[in-house]
Every structure is written in structure tokens, then in C-alpha cells.
Amino acid sequence: MTLMPPTGSLILADAPFSAEQESWLAGFIAGIAAAESRQSAAAGTPPVTATVDVLFGTQTGTAESLAGEAAAGARARGLGANVTALDDITPERLAAMSHLLVVTSTYGEGEMPDNAGLFWEALQAEGAPRLEGLRYAVLGLGDRGYDDFCQAAKVIDTHLEQLGAVRLLDRVDCDVDFEEPAAAWTAAVVDRLAAETGVPAANTAPAAAAAPAGAPAGRSPWNRRNPYPSRLAVNRLLSSPDSAKEIRHYEFDLGDSGITYTAGDALAVTPVNDDALVGLLLTHLGASGEEDIDGRPLAEVLRTGREIRTPSKELVADLVERAPSSELAAVVAHGDRSDLDSWLWGRDVLDLLRDAGSAAPGAGELLPFLRPLQARQYSISSSPLAHPDRVHLTVASIRYTAGNRRYEGVASTHLADRVGEGTSAGVHLQPNAAFGIPADDGVPMIMIGPGTGIAPFRGFLHERAARGASGDNWLFFGDQHRKTDFVYEDELTLLRERGVLTRLDLAFSRDQAEKIYVQTRMRERSRELYGWLEEGAHVYVCGDASRMAKDVEAALLGVIAEQRGRGDEDAAGYLADLRRAKRYVRDVY
User: Looking at residues 525-539, what average pLDDT do you find?
Assistant: First the structure.
């Protein structure tokens, strides 16, 4: 860097300054600051007086969006704001911060989301820096249906305090209806930050109303509470009729919605409960369905407003108290969480009411224990470059029989059976900035997605084909049987012939006596797989979080350890470096 003083001689940034040069430099910088202040005033934006760091941990993008809104609210009040993923922050950077906001979801059973695990490890590590100079606040996102509700936010909040940081506000933990508490937290924390840093009182709308950082001026009006009625253009069976599974391909018309998406994003579908299940529930409750519930018929509330497929924790607890001699109460009395999970698996609200017998609550008492009906998110399986006016989904319809009852998934069978081609379903986009193809078209990609986990990778491949990307692409895909479950076989064959799909490794688990999975193929291709990693490949995993994703990560660690020959600790460090570099990312559920 060079600066030219009035005398015309050259000043080098790493050379000592004379008194005259220092005086000129101070005046030069002050002039820039004054000019920026005048520009800010002219634009109606207050000059920056302090900076807040907003860190997010996210699995689906919601926490990142809320972090952007908090940052935008801070900027609107004259504060500087940086928005960063938790894993991108080192202990040294954390120790240098003065004001910190953390917005994080919780993944699985109380785990950190994928882009927060490294941060949490560093925060707990021996020798983590003291944070007495830090003022902070934490917003948690979660689902009270899980035992470890907002656990990631809770432990981060507690540990920051243990390291000496001081809370700006008490932590707020948001349930699935997060909009209002999150907006209130954002407004309150921005007001507190402004007061502490001497920013004048706000004369504008609440900070929470600001658009996320980087969001277009006309942010889409379509969201969870206001879904876009999208016409279903295609509903096609992908799996064979002889398959044990039912996997379908859907195409939604974006019409005049203004929705724009990126390969790797998700589409949230607002479901409607099955009329048959609603009818059975009403019959059991002895209700006609016409009963008035805040101006709406009870039947309509159960169809469109409440979760009746998955019982809430609150309902379980209430029924155990009401019916202590029930089968459910006996399972709970054992005190084994895994036993309770096994007993509850597949059962719905009607099953639990029947188990409680005459002690079960009536309709009026039951409703408070039924959680709001939630939209279901599905990984988008198309590319906007190939299909700008439509969003494709790849969805497995959930259907099974237990005892004398037939059970069906809420959203998957809503799409399959109750939304016909040409009719509409409510949808909204769920961006996922962390799960996208490399900006550099020459970078190799390794994609691991069995079953419907193939969805985003179909979109990735179409995107790379449309961009004419030169980078190699390797897909690991599998399911039960090649004959009945090889979805998108024709497309993948064509992509291979065109050179877009460089390698395709298949694992059909039940086509031979010994079960073969995608992780089996990974181990078999150990040398080549590690070679791709060394060449800078990005690794993507999509699918079941409870088993597949864990097995794939174990296989990946095994491959790295075997090829490097330096032990498990070295392999774990290598994988951590891939995470930090955003070269190992997952879209798991």
C-alpha cells in the first residue's frame, strides 16, 4: 500500500513515518472519515459508531436469515455489523470482539448444527481465551417436540458466561413459531446495543422489520405464514410399481411469485391433514366437526391447523397423568427414553387417545396439546439455469400398516394423493446458502446421496451442465434394488455420456446376500476418493441424519486415516479443515 503526501515523496506502509508525514496521514484519514459521514448523512444512514458481530449456526438457513435481519437492524441504527458463520470464528477473533449476537438452531438430539461444531469445540477447549470484554446475547431456534430443545443455544450461552462475557439480554429460545419472539428479541437487542454505544434513539420502524443483509430490496412476501399457491405441473412416479418404496417427482410452477432459487435450496410445502384421519379423530372425540374454534369449524382446524400425526411431548405427559394404568404410562414408568421412542414410533394422536381409554381428553381439552401444523421442507432437485420457472422435488411417500391401521405421511401423501396436477399447494422457499456448488467451475465435486438424497445432486449436475463447468463430478447413489429403485437412471446415464457425471458408484443393498451401501463403495474406492480430496474436491452429503450421514462420515474418516497413515486424530483434523474450508457440507434430515 502506498500513500502520496503533498510533497510528492513516497511513503511505504511498513516504513517509519516522520512527524510531518504522520500529521499529513492523520489529516488524510480524518478527511476520508468526514466524507463517509457526509455521504451517510446524505443517504439517510447514521454514521457507524460501533460494530456488532452477528454469528449464526444453521442447518436449513433460517438462523442465517435471522442473523441477517439482526445485522440489518443494527446498521439501520448506525452500528456496524458483521454476519459470520460460527465455524468461521477462531478463539482469537472471538476474544477481539466487543459486542456479539449469536443466532443458532439445534440439530438432531441436542447437537450443534453443521457449521457450529468447530466453534463449540474451540470454545470448550483448554486454553480458550477469557472474554471479560465481551457483551453478548443469544437467540435459539428449536422444536419443543425434542427433549433437548434449543440445546445448542443454551450451552453456548452458558459457556460464554463462564468465560467471563456479560449478557446484554437473557437468551430467548424460539419454538417452531419463531417469527414474533425472534423479531422482539432483535428489536430489544438492537435497542440495548444502541443505548450502550451512545447511538441516538430510533425514529424509524423497529429493527426487526429490516431486510436481511444482502437481501434484495423487494424481499419475497411468500413465507411460512403466507405461502405461495403454486400450481403442481407434474406428479410422476419414479420408482417401479413393484418397489417397496414410492418415490415421486414433482414440478411446481413458480408463475408470478417472483420466487428465485439456487441449486441446493429447499422448498417448504404447507400440508393439509388427511380427511379420513380427521374423521376418525372426530368420531373418537364424539364431535361433529362443526364446533366453533375461534371462528373456525373444529374439522377445519384439525385439517389445516394442527399436527395430528405426531403426538406432542405435552400430550404424552398429560395422557400419562390422566391414565396411569395405560400402556403408554407403563412405558414411561420404565424411565428408558429409547423404549418410549420405540413405542411412540409410528403412532399418532388417535392411537394415544385410544390407549388412554375413557380418561382421554375431549376436543376442547385436547386442542392445546396439538402443536401447529408445520410446513415440510424438501431439497430442491432442479437448477434455475435449466428450469427457471419451476421447482422440482423428489419425495418418498410414507405409507405403512401397523396392527389394523393404515398410516400415511402428512406432506408426502398430501402431495401424492391430495394435490392433483393442475391444482395448487402452498409453498415458500427456504434458502440454504451453505449447501451449493463451488463458485469455481473447475473444482471437483463428490456427492453422496442414497435414496431421495439424490435430490440436490440432480440439481447440481443440471447446474454444472448449464454452466459448462469443467470440474469433475462423482456421485455415490444407492437404494434397495436396482431394478425397482434406480430413480433418474436415464438422466444419470445421459449425464455420464455427456461427460457431466464423471463417475457413478452404485450401491443397491438388497441385490445380493451381503448388504452393500454407499459407504461400502466409498471404502472400496478409498485411494481414488482421497486423491480427489487432495485435488481440492468438495464433498456433499444428503439424506438421513440418524444413520446414513453418520455412517458416511465414519467411512470418510476411515478413508482419510487409511490413505494418510497418521491415525484417527489426524484424520479428524483433516476433516475439520475440510469443514472450515466449506469443502465438506451436509443437507441431512
Answer: 98
| Stretch 256-284: mean pLDDT | 97
Cβ within 8 Å of residue 111, ≥6 positions away = 117, 151, 152
Residue 148: inside a domain: yes
For residue 391, the cross-strand partners are 252
Structural domain includes residue 581: yes
Residue 165 lies in domain: 51-203
Strand order from edge to edge, sheet including 266-270: 376-379, 266-270, 424-430, 228-237, 247-253, 390-396
Q: What is the CATH number of the domain that holds 392?
A: 2.40.30.10
Mark whether 480 and 523 lie in a shared domain: yes
8 A C-beta contact, residue 183 and residue 350: no
Total tally of structural domains belonging to the chain: 5
Q: Give the predicted TM-score (pTM) of the model.
A: 0.86
SS3 category, 259 = coil
C-beta of residue 189 within 8 angstroms of C-beta of residue 70: yes
My answer on whether 550 and 412 are in the same domain is no
Question: Per-residue confidence at 546, pLDDT binned at 50, 70, 90?
Answer: confident
The answer to whether residue 439 is domain-embedded is: no
pLDDT surpasses 80 at 79: yes
Residue 351, number of CB atoms within 10 A of its CB: 17
